[in-house]
Amino acid sequence: MNSKNIYEIDLDQNQANFAHLTPLSFIERCSSVYPQKVSLIHGDKKYTWAETYKRCCLLASALLKMGIGKGDTVAFMGANTPETFEGHFGVPMTGAVLNALNVRLDAKAIAFILEHAETKVLFTDREFSGTIKAVLELVPQELTVIDIDDPSFSGGELLGSEDYEAFIAKGDGDYRCFQIEDEWQAISLNYTSGTTGDPKGVVFHHRGAYLNAISNNLCWDMTAHPIYLWTLPMFHCNGWCFPWGLAAAAGTSVCLRHVRDAAILDAMKKYHVSHFCGAPVVLNTIINAD
């Protein structure tokens, strides 16, 4: 009997037969196959997948121009808005790692996270400027702070050197998605909250994010252009990987800054929402709405 395994001869991995798994491939494909499908709705704003992909590429390019790259941490202190969604693609396109911060934490906890993660850039929504102002007095390292100036929120302060739109305008319009070197490469960093002691960091890799997103779509039957309402915070385990899964399914994200019964019900009726995530407290809010 021949002891050689004929299927192991000259069948090593190469560019022709192997691709690293990454959810960045979802948005590349989606922007090409479904460029005019609506990707994001936020108030009066609507973006197509072609527009969202371009904005993600601009974000990535602008970050690269300031020296951000593989292994760097970029944090978002953001609400459920297009900017936070775009961060899930634009940041890892550079090889950097996204840290979506829990906006409910106090300044001490956030300062610990930013220091522990060796954060280089912080994007922050003006709604959370009170907390971030205190954070900036606590962190030892120098941070580049970029404001998310969402017109749907009028309070708070602008703390950064410039706002998000001005920042991504610096990006190269011809930039295209970063090709990862290894699917085990880190894509995001999330921290525990509400536990004893300091927050603990958990790293997601590209492969895991890809598989989790696909699993969501299969288990939730989100395979045919779902309309997803963002009641779940995007900082919560990267929105349970739904930003990436929605790109895979060419779905539409309906953004909500705040979980309010009237806003939820209005969005469900207006946009014919097919999916949303709801903890019991959210479901009770909807059930008991006037």
Automatic annotation (TrEMBL):
The keyword Lipid metabolism applies. GO terms for biological process: fatty acid metabolic process. Residues 29-289 form the AMP-dependent synthetase/ligase domain. The keyword Lipid metabolism applies. Gene3D superfamilies: N-terminal domain of ligase-like (3.40.50.12780). Keywords: Fatty acid metabolism, Ligase, Lipid metabolism. It comes from SAR86 cluster bacterium. Pfam families: AMP-binding (PF00501). Belongs to the ATP-dependent AMP-binding enzyme family. One of its GO terms (molecular function) is ligase activity. This is Acyl-CoA synthetase.
